[in-house]
Write a structure and sequence with these properties.
Length: 262
C-alpha cells in the first residue's frame, strides 16, 4: 500500500499553516518529515488520519492505496487508525490513558479491529509488550502509565500502534522527550519492527542526526512549505537549502554516524 499527498493545504482560521505540501510514501519506504517547530510537519501527519485540531481545515489530496482520505467520514477514518495506519505521538504520558492499565490499552485496538475476545486480546497484549522488549511483560501490562519510565511508556505506545500490524506507521517525534541512550534504543526498536513487518514509515523530527538513523528519504519543511525533497544521504552530504544546512549544523552530535543506515 502507498500514500500520496498532493498539494496539501491546512488553514486555521485565516492563517495558512501548511501550503501546498506534496510527497509520496511507497510501500515499504521510510520517509522523514523534518523541520523546526512550526514548520507544519506534525499538522501534515495529523491531516493524514483526520486528527487536525478544531478549527483547522485541509484541502488538496491525501490518497491511501488509491482511496481519498480528505473528506472521508470520521467513522471510516476510525477504521483505518490503528488498523491500516498506526501513529506514535511525541509524549506518551499525554497519549496514554492514566486510569487504564497499559495492557488494557494495548488490547483495545485488537478487540476493536480484530473482534478478538477479551481473553485473547489480553494474551496478545502480553505478546506485544514482549515484542517491544518491555521487561517482565506479564507484570508490565498490569501497571498504569505513571508506574513506568519514559522509555517504557514509549514502548507501550509503539506496541499499541503496531498491535494490528498496520501497513504504515506515523511516528511524530517519538524520541524527543527521552535521553540519548533511550533514544537510540527506541530508534533501533522501530527500525527492527519495521523490518519485521515490512511496513512503511513516516518519521517526524527536527533532528537530522536522528532522521539519519531511521529514514532513507527526507522532506524538509519550513513555514508549511517543502524546501527540499531528497535522499537522507544527500541531505547529509550536500544539503541544498539554507534550512537543511542549518539542520545539519544543529544535528545531535551524540547520535551522529556518517556511515549510518541512511
Amino acid at each position: 500500500m502507498s500514500l500520496q499527498v498532493q498539494d496539501l493545504v491546512i488553514e486555521i482560521g485565516d492563517r495558512r499553516v501548511v501550503d501546498g505540501v506534496s510527497f509520496s510514501v511507497p510501500d515499504g519506504a521510510r520517509v522523514g518529515l523534518i523541520g523546526e517547530s512550526g514548520s507544519g510537519k506534525s499538522l501534515t501527519a495529523l491531516a493524514i488520519l483526520g486528527l487536525l485540531p478544531d478549527g483547522a481545515t485541509a484541502t488538496g489530496s491525501i490518497r491511501w492505496n488509491g482511496r481519498e482520505l480528505i473528506g472521508l467520514p470520521d467513522r471510516d477514518l476510525a477504521r483505518l487508525r490503528g488498523d491500516e495506519i498506526g501513529i506514535v505521538f511525541q509524549e506518551p504520558r499525554t497519549a496514554l490513558n492514566p486510569i487504564r492499565t497499559v495492557g488494557r490499552q494495548i488490547a483495545e485496538s485488537i478487540r476493536i479491529h480484530e473482534n478478538a475476545s477479551k481473553k485473547d486480546a489480553a494474551a496478545r497484549a502480553i505478546a506485544e509488550a514482549a515484542r517491544v522488549a518491555l521487561p517482565d511483560p506479564e507484570r508490565i501490562v498490569a501497571r498504569y502509565p505513571h508506574q513506568l519510565s519514559g522509555g517504557q511508556r514509549q514502548r507501550v505506545a509503539i506496541a499499541m500502534a503496531l498491535a494490528c500490524r498496520p501497513r504504515l506507521l506515523i511516528a511524530d517525534e517519538p524520541t524527543t522527550a527521552l535521553d540519548v541512550t533511550i533514544q537510540a534504543e527506541i530508534l533501533e526498536l522501530m527500525h527492527s519492527l519495521a523490518d519485521d513487518d515490512g511496513m512503511s514509515l513516516i518519521f517526524i523530527t527536527h533532528d537530522l542526526a536522528v532522521l539519519s538513523q531511521i529514514a532513507t528519504h527526507g522532506i524538509v519543511l519550513e513555514h508549511g512549505r517543502v524546501v527540499e525533497d531528497a535522499p537522507v544521504a544527500t541531505l547529509l552530504s550536500a544539503p541544498a537549502s539554507p534550512v537543511t544546512q542549518g539542520l545539519l549544523r544543529d544535528a545531535t552530535a551524540t547520535l551522529w554516524r556518517p556511515e549510518g543506515r541512511a
